[in-house]
Each structure stands twice: as C-alpha cells, then as structure tokens.
Amino acid sequence: MPKHTPSASPHKRRPLQPLWLRITHWLNAAAVVVMVMSGWRIYNASPIFGDFTFPAGITLGGWLGGALQWHFAGMWLLAVNGLAYLLLNLLTGRWARRMFPVSPRGILRDAWLALTARLSHADLGHYNQVQRAAYLFAVADLVLLVVSGLVIWKSVQFPLLRELLGGYEMARRIHFISMALLVGFIAVHIAMVVLVPRSLLTMLLGRPTWQRTTQQESAT
C-alpha cells in the first residue's frame, strides 16, 4: 500500500532574488556599459585632462555622432529602468530590509573580517555592511552622473543645477570622476562575483544553484 505523502507536487522555495530585481539589475548593467563606453568616445572628442584619451577599441559609437546616439539610448534606458528599480525596491520594502542598518563602525568591522578571510558568505540573502555601503554609494554616484549629465546636455535649460555644480566645465569634470568611480565599483563587484560565484547564479536564476530546490518525496 503506498505511503501517504503531504503533497504530490514539489515545493519551491521563494527565490533569494525576485524576477523583477534580476531583470532590472541586468538592464541597468547593460545601460551602464553602453553609457560608459560611448561616454569615453564622447570624451575623446573634447578631452578635459590634457592629452589623456581612451583607446578607440574600448569605446562605442565609432565617431562623435554615433557615440551620442548610443549615449542617449543608454541614458533613457537607465532613467526609466533605474526609476523602476528604485520604486520597486522601496514599495516592496526590500530596500529597508537589505540596505539598512549601515554605520561606519559596521563597515570597518565587516571590511576587517573580509580582509582577514573571516567574512561569511553562506547566506547570500544577507548583505554585509560593506556591500550595503557599496550599493548605496553606487546609487548616489548614478544620481550624480544623471544630474551632471543633464547640465552637460541641457546647460541652458538647467541653470540652477549648472550653478550648483560650479558651472559647465566643472560639471564635465564631476561627470568624468563619477564615471570613473562607477567603473571602479563595477570592477570590485566583478571581483566579488569571481570570489563568490554562487552570487552570479543567484542573480541569474534567483537561487545559488543550478539544481531546483524541491521537497523530497516519500518512496511508495
């Protein structure tokens, strides 16, 4: 006689990263890559730091006009998708749960644990305070990139923003430095993914393994 089982259907656990988060994350990543590479080509057309320019092979657009088209395409994608990302994080309460609390003392503590290889990565659903600070920094940096970009793009239409940033030329420098800091964040982010590959699977599949998590069924 077959043994009674509570449920014949497999039980799926709630994903660590919901689908909406994964979609908006990768769209944001694509938009940032497009904007950075096309931005380097735009910078090369009018350098602000002497003779320093970026190699053509790592830029996007081929020429100034093409780079501007790519840059604006990436800008609109980042603006719309980034706003959706922020609103969904706030409305679902995920922002408050994952990004706070954060404090200088907590950041220093977790940074020391990471440097001494004692920081646990067992629970990928929990962000340590170094991660929280890094993600909050990235959001603030992106906001500064958007604001300075508006001043560069529509300087006459945004006189208050232009003055707050110290003028058009200063806005260009702020935009460049913010871009460099964002590239630095991405480099560190990729390094962390290499050290903890399960985090990449979590952002791709919603779980840290290829195998589906199911409730084991009793033998009949």
Give your account of this protein's structure.
The chain has 220 residues and is mostly helical. It has two domains: 15-99; 100-207, no CATH class. Helix content is 64%, strand content 0%. The protein has helices spanning 19-45, 64-91, 94-99, 104-115, 129-153, 159-164, 168-195, 198-205. The longest helix has 28 residues, at 64-91.
* Strand and helix order: HHHHHHHH
Q: Which band does the percent of strand residues land in?
A: under 5%
Biggest beta sheet summary: none
Quote the average pLDDT.
85
**Strand pairing plus helix content: what structural class?**
mainly alpha
Helical fraction equals 55-70%
How many DSSP-defined strands? 0
Number of domains: 2
| Computed CA radius of gyration, to the nearest angstrom | 22 Å
Number of helices: 8
Task: Give unreliable regions as ranges.
Answer: 1-11, 213-220
Shape designation: globular
Gap between N and C termini:
8 Å
Topology:
Elements: H1 19-45, H2 64-91, H3 94-99, H4 104-115, H5 129-153, H6 159-164, H7 168-195, H8 198-205
Family: Belongs to the HupC/HyaC/HydC family.
Protein name: Thiosulfate reductase cytochrome b subunit
Transmembrane segments: 20-43, 70-91, 133-153, 173-196
